[in-house]
Specification:
Layout: H1 3-26, E1 34-39, E2 45-50, H2 56-72
Antiparallel strand pairs: 1-2
């Protein structure tokens, strides 16, 4: 992939992650103290965690993006 396209997608990725964190922080006061962390096959929540768990999905995505970017840049 061309370097310009890679830079574009890197910028879009970081803007997306910053947007996700900004949205969480903006709505922090209205997020309930307990949030669902797992759903059963019927779509009903069956596990609950405190509201800090809401940061897990974007943090996990950021870590996975960094891992994939690092592994993808290894030349064999």
């Amino acid at each position: 992939m061309k370097k310009n396209a890679l830079s574009f997608f890197t910028i879009v990725t970081f803007i997306s992650f910053i947007g996700a964190f900004a949205l969480i922080l903006y709505n922090w006061s209205i997020i309930p103290n307990e949030v669902p962390t797992h759903y059963n096959a019927k779509g009903e929540p069956d596990q609950w965690g405190n509201k800090w768990f809401i940061f897990f999905p974007p943090l996990f995505g950021l870590v996975m993006w960094g891992f994939i970017r690092t592994v993808g840049s290894i030349k064999i």
